[in-house]
Specification:
By secondary structure, the protein is an alpha+beta fold. It is built from twelve helices and 18 strands. Strand 10 and strand 11 form a beta hairpin. It is elongated and about 95 Å long.
Length: 491
């Protein structure tokens, strides 16, 4: 379905500032739909057909069943079918009456409210009201009176507000609770839900006829709405257990504030849940931090033991084990910053490259180049893959260029790590321009512990594939290692 902006650009002559105004209106009009217990349409003259209007937007109420089961956005309607819409647009005044709609069985009450912008009518807000079920209650009468005042603001181009939306995800709704304040800040009306929210803040006396300050609760958002005619939101806490969200919408007539609609929402449970989540994240972050520290301690012990060893073979084995432990620590270091079940693997790759460059002593200068990324990976994939890549990079740097040593040799050693995704798989390619593999090399019978670890990690733990092949001289020579891992959930 096309958006409001796309429909306006394609089927109307409305300019960008007008479209922005209409977008702000549709971002806020759930408040109007709930206050009027009605479906709302936003219609504008079509540039495709004279005397026709196109529906740019549609919203249904949250507190009453809809009159429109069909979606009318993008549909075209002639003025003769909607005479009151044409009257409101041409005369710039509200037009009301009764009409029949092809897909609705009974007559529908229609309000056509002109939408102004910069002193001209640019669209029409259409209210479609279903039949009332019995006599209206006090709450319905108050809601409708507020709706009428806000409709006057729509026609005066003072609603929606440029500074803020007055409705949207996470914001209080009409059903959460409403307080209607007079121009002097005194409470004119409060719904039971709003009264219950005030009770949670310690206000138990009758609220009608009093200001919130007189009741013992100062709400700066109310003061700003009254003094500056700006919609404002404020959250007021009482201890650690109570949090009430106040959203204040000023009502303006003839250029002055005549009242404030205060929507209240009890967000105590939500804030408590947020605190629990934050505490859990902090605990998980601390666990990863301690694991990283413990791994670094083990790494330091292995490095100290290697220094004390007189046997070159033992020293090499200990240093290789130390590097593998540090590869695992890199993953936990990233998770200690952003805890969760997933990790941005690009951060790990950067740390792995630094790790290999710092720990490997090559007789020949070698440059490591990284292209692409794997995005976000699950931690149970990232950890073994990090160990495998560190091992493969180290192996390439240490062994690929053993025949190119010496300062007189101008051969530049380059190890390239290519990372990318394809159709549910993660692919890592390590390519070097070194001497290539030996004639009798077989990955099924590796000659080093490091390659045995890599093979088992990729095949057994990650359920992937790994291939190692020498590249022909015409392609630059060297070795190409390709690791392919499935990214689907594993049992």
């Amino acid at each position: 379905m096309a958006t409001l902006a796309e429909l306006a650009a394609t089927h109307t002559a409305l300019g960008e500032p007008v479209v922005d105004h209409l977008l702000r209106l549709t971002a806020s009009w759930s408040l109007l739909a709930d206050l009027s217990f009605s479906d709302l349409l936003l219609m504008a003259p079509s540039s495709d057909e004279d005397g026709a209007f196109i529906v740019l937007g549609q919203i249904r109420p949250n507190n009453r069943s809809t009159m429109l089961n069909e979606d009318l956005v993008g549909t075209m309607h002639r003025a003769a079918e909607w005479p009151r819409v044409a009257i409101a647009y041409d005369d710039g005044a509200r037009a009301t009456g009764e009409t029949t709609i092809a897909f609705v069985d009974e007559p529908v009450q229609v309000w056509a409210i002109p939408v102004r912008f910069a002193d001209r009518v640019v669209a029409v807000l259409v209210r479609l009201q279903g039949p009332l079920r019995g006599p209206s209650s006090l709450y319905e009468r108050v809601y409708l009176s507020i709706f009428v005042r806000l409709c006057d603001m729509v026609s005066d181009a003072t609603f929606p507000f440029r500074e803020d939306e007055v409705a949207g995800p996470g914001m209080p709704r009409v059903g959460d609770g409403i307080i209607l304040l007079e121009a002097d800040g005194r409470v004119e009306f409060a719904t039971p839900n709003a009264t219950n929210a005030l009770h949670r803040l310690g206000i138990y006396s009758a609220v009608e006829g009093h200001t919130l300050v007189e009741l013992g609760q100062r709400v700066r958002a109310v003061e700003r709405a009254l003094n500056f005619a700006l919609p404002t939101m404020e959250e007021i806490d009482r201890g650690h257990d109570v949090a009430i969200l106040f959203h204040c919408v000023p009502v303006i007539a003839d250029g002055r504030v005549t009242g404030v609609v205060v929507l209240l929402r009890d967000v105590s449970d939500l804030r408590q849940l947020n605190r629990v989540v934050l505490h859990k994240e902090a605990a998980v972050r601390e666990v990863h931090h301690r694991v990283k520290n413990n791994l670094q301690t083990i790494s330091s012990l292995l490095r100290l033991q290697a220094r004390r060893s007189d046997e070159a073979e033992t020293r090499t084995a200990l240093l290789e084990a130390e590097r593998r432990v540090r590869s695992i620590a890199v993953v936990h270091e990233v998770l200690s910053r952003e805890p969760g079940e997933d990790v941005v693997f690009d951060e790990i790759v950067r740390s792995l490259v630094v790790l290999v460059e710092d720990t490997v002593l090559a007789l020949h200068p070698v440059e490591i180049v990284v292209n692409g990324d794997l995005g976000v990976l699950a931690t149970d994939v990232a950890t073994p893959l990090a160990v495998a890549l560190a091992e493969l990079l180290t192996n390439a740097v240490e062994h690929a260029f053993t025949e190119f040593g010496g300062e007189e040799n101008e051969h530049v050693g380059v190890v390239t790590l290519n990372l990318y995704r394809r159709s549910g798989e993660a692919v890592a390619e390590i390519r070097d321009n070194g001497r290539g593999l030996g004639e009798n090399f077989s990955l099924d019978a590796p000659t080093s512990l490091g390659l045995s670890i890599v093979r088992d990690l990729i095949r057994a733990q990650l359920h992937g594939t790994i291939t190692m092949n020498s590249m022909p001289y015409a392609s630059g020579g060297g070795t190409l290692v390709r690791v392919v891992l499935p990214l689907v959930a594993r049992r």
